[in-house]
Amino acid sequence: MLKDKYKDQIAALFAKYPPERKRSAVMPLLYLAQEEYGYCSEDAMREVADLCGMDPTEVKSVVGFYTMYYEHKVGKYVIDVCDDLPCVLRGADKFVNYCEQKLGIKAGETTPDGKITLNVVMCLAACDRAPMCQVNTDYHYDLTPDKFDKLVKELRSK
Amino acid sequence: MDKHILLRDLDVPNIHELAVYSQHDGYVAWKKAVTSMKPEEVINVVKDSGLRGRGGAGFPAGVKWSFIPKDVFPKYVTVNCDESEPGTFKDHQLIRSNPHQVIEGTALCAYAIGANVAYIYCRGEFREPARELQKAIDDAYAAGLLGKNLFGGNYSLDMYVHLGAGAYICGEESALLESLEGRIGQPRLKPPFPAVSGLYSKPTVINNVETLANVPPIVLNGAAWYKQWGTEKSPGVKIFSVCGHVKKPGNYELPLGKYSIQDLLDMAGGSMTGRPIKAVLPAGSSSPIIPAANFHAKLDYEAMAAIGSVLGSCSWIFMDDSVDMVWAARKMIRFFKHESCGKCTPCREGTHWALRLYDKLLSGKGTIEDVNLIGDVNKQIIGKCFCPLGEFATSSMTFTLKHFKQDYVDFVEQKKGGSEVYLQELARDHHLHELHSGVVPVNGIAVH
User: Fold this and answer.
1) Which of A46, A101, A133, B232 is in the most buried spot, having the most CB atoms within 10 Å?
2) What ipTM was predicted for this assembly?
3) How far apart (Å, rounded) are the C-alpha atoms in residues B151 and B143?
């Protein structure tokens, strides 16, 4: 259970908000749950609801609303490539084609070994350095097929 | 300008470190304010400087602060770092490369309005730069610049980073507050405005990252110093984020009103492709597109309004003459459809139907009636949305139809739709939509 394993971390999260406003911690707690379980499972959402004094359906509505919470299992590494207008002007569309070809999956899918999920996402606020992507939370800029090959090799070896 | 006021990382290596920032006037304004200035004096100097909100709306910052009632407690400062619109990337650089100036500006705002807690709301995708910001906050606490009884006085200030989780709408200030309170990010009815009833129904100032980064040098050097740059109605400096078809994309800090759009394009190295630049979006995907014929306009709030556009967040997306405006408008509508929070019908349904029409054009099945229908759907969104972000969605349609109607006519008459590239793009979006809506199983497991 999160509340036993991450007791201090959870207490520190709640301390950021007024004591009667535990609900404010729902988003950081969902991140914690997602890191622990890999995605926001229904059990995880119930745990978070219990911690914040919320109804589980309310937590589920939060998970459903925000794009960064996963309701199903994803790869160990999630590669999010932005393909909005400014990025495509700098070649992001062709870059996504290359990513799909290299990984042998379509955007939105996970490699059969469960290692890498490829997504195309809305703006990541790095339009000046497109094509770009995030691997889990880290930014990678000015990407080329060569750089992507190296990145994938590195992720596969981890 | 000799030196940058905001993008100081371009002049001073490692200014993101507290020791380096402190050597370059860091936290001098903060100490000066807490130890020798009354809160009203801080508000007045910001008011006198004429600093306008840099998030897009351009509302005078000092005036906003002065709306906060003095006799209601607690009060809050909330910093809007939910930078999420295609074309924007200035706050990203500020929190990553000059975080202490953002912290100091936030602190000065908190002191000015009498708040003891400040939240910096960063979009969830900024987890990596937000780590830099959090480290800077931790260092400021350790150095006694944040926390209890600052500089031996009675004033205390706590500052926290709160991460969103992927929702453009949270850049709308009341949706941001909803999100910070642990709910889905849907905007609130106004009035009451946040100055009266904001976070936890308490008086709250919400300012953009760049707005607050301007505050420490203003408090340190005075309003007259700041007004040496810019025009009477648009004083000071502004970060211009430049991207798209330019050779040197990036953030450029410039005095307002001095340069023209063409100057900005030249600074960014001109066209990346060698082809002529056709148009620019001046404030991300939500702004009225400007054809190259108007590139003589000066870069300030008034001059941009005079050519029927906006200065907004200053996120400049340049496009060369290979860009078909039907395709570009579809890309933008796709974004707004995806990011519609669903609260109000005109935005939720309007962007959905508009995207269907654009998809029909791209697929090669569109007719001139569909082009007219896009105009009709657009009219049913304009002026009818619950929040400004719904209105934002319409700009791409209104102004591509206004300035580039011929692109639409040619698109249909010359049968440009149905090309391999367009069909591939549509297929990818369709596949993702099916995955997200549970129509097809994800990883072999149906999600809904």
Assistant:
1) A133
2) 0.96
3) 11
Residue A150 placed within a domain: yes
For residue B328, which residues of chain A lie inside 8 Å, CB to CB?
Answer: 85
Distance from CA of A124 to the nearest CA of B (A): 7
Residue B232 falls within a domain, yes or no? no
Q: Do B249 and A90 touch (CB under 8 A)?
A: yes
Per-residue pLDDT of A94-140, as tens digits, reads: 999 999 999 999 999 999 999 999 999 999 999 999 999 999 989 99
What total of structural domains would you count in chain B? 3
Phi, psi for residue B77 in degrees, rounded to 5: -110, 130
Contact: A31, B163; criterion CB under 8 Å: yes
Pick from B64, B73, B153, B175: which is nearest to B109 by CA? Answer: B64
In a shared domain, residues B383 and B396 = yes
pLDDT tens digit sequence for A33-79: 999 999 999 999 999 999 999 999 999 999 999 999 999 999 999 99
**What mean pLDDT is reported for chain B?**
95
Contacts of B85 in chain A (CB under 8 A): 123
Q: Supply the range of the domain harboring residue A50.
A: 2-65
Are residues B294 and B336 part of one domain? no
Contact A85 B332 (CB under 8 A): yes
A37 φ/ψ angles, rounded to the nearest 5 degrees: -105, -5
Specify the pLDDT at position B178. Answer: 98
Beta-bridged to residue A82, according to DSSP, are A121
Instruction: Kindly state whether residue B231 falls inside one of the protein's structural domains.
Output: no
Residues of A in contact with B272 (CB under 8 A): 90
